[in-house]
Amino acid sequence: MNRGFFITFEGGDGSGKSTQIQKLKEYLQSKGMDVILTREPGGTAISEKIREIILDPDNAEMSDQTEMMLYAAARAQLVNEVIEPVLNSGKSVICDRFVDSSMAYQAYGRGLGDMVWEVNQKAIGNCMPDLTILLKLDPDQGKNRISNRQQDRIEQASSDFHRKVYEGYLALEQRFPQRIKGIDASRDIEDIFKEIKDMVDDLMSRTV
Ligand code: ADP
Ligand code: TYD
User: Fold this and answer.
1) For the segment 35-54, what is each residue's pLDDT rounded down to a tens digit?
2) How do beta strands 6-11 and 35-39 pair?
3) Which H or E element spans position 190?
4) Is 87:4 a contact under the CB 8 Å cutoff?
5) Using DSSP, how many helices (H) and how many strands (E) does the chain show?
6) Considering 29, 65, 124, 208, which has the largest number of Cβ atoms within 10 A of its Cβ?
């Protein structure tokens, strides 16, 4: 049995990931593919509990190291319990955020550097996405789009932090051009989706 495709979405808060993921899921299902959607931090009972701790605005005293390791712990559980078994069963996985989020937010944003990759490598082993779609949107624009929803602990961080996260994503895109494909996410939903569809069609034509 062929392993399924593993596709992740990345980008700042409010960049349009959930919107595009929903459209991609419908597109792939219309082609007869078996696809499961999951998200980070979360996606399993244990990981959702860790998510609550990480994002709780009352946990203002959480150290950057604790935050980084909790994201990695939630990820290790998701990889073991969901992502690996699903891919091995031949189904495809679309994940809303994955290890690149830790690189952008914790390594670049919090300034923790290489340690973030070292810890995450232990959490995920060889489980890396086949394709990562990076929705590139100026962080101030992203913030405006989500201004009417309740902000979690990370979303409440300073605009300086979110600017560093954005620059971190741009650096990752440069560093891993084969896997990470950036898209201008300031455009119309349908224009963005057309580009995503082309990227995914290309991935599938390369691997069959
Ligand atoms: P994320 O999952 O990255 O936080 P969402 O998909 O939830 O982003 O989108 C955040 C908000 O912006 C939602 O209200 C959504 O309807 C809106 N939105 C998404 N894509 C676009 C777009 N291309 N242009 C304008 N608004 C958008
Ligand atoms: P998410 O629920 O995806 O928020 P949004 O829908 O606004 O994009 O993610 C929660 C927050 O956690 C988000 O601000 C990004 C942050 N995050 C990290 O800092 N590191 C990580 O490894 C992950 C997966 C998320």
Assistant:
1) 999 999 999 999 999 999 99
2) unpaired
3) helix 189-207
4) yes
5) 9, 5
6) 124
* Cα gap 49→51, rounded to integer Å: 5
Which amino acid, one-letter code, is at 57?
A: P
Residues counted in the chain:
208
Ligand found nearest the CA of 22: 1
CA 64 to CA 73: how far, in whole Å?
A: 14
Q: How far apart are CA 57 and CA 167, in angstroms?
A: 25
Give me ligand 1 centre to Cα 50, in Å. Answer: 25
Tens digits of per-residue pLDDT, 159-205?
999 999 999 999 999 999 999 999 999 999 999 999 999 999 999 99
Q: What are the tens digits of pLDDT across the range 75-96?
A: 999 999 999 999 999 999 999 9
Taking the complete model, does pTM exceed 0.90, yes or no? yes
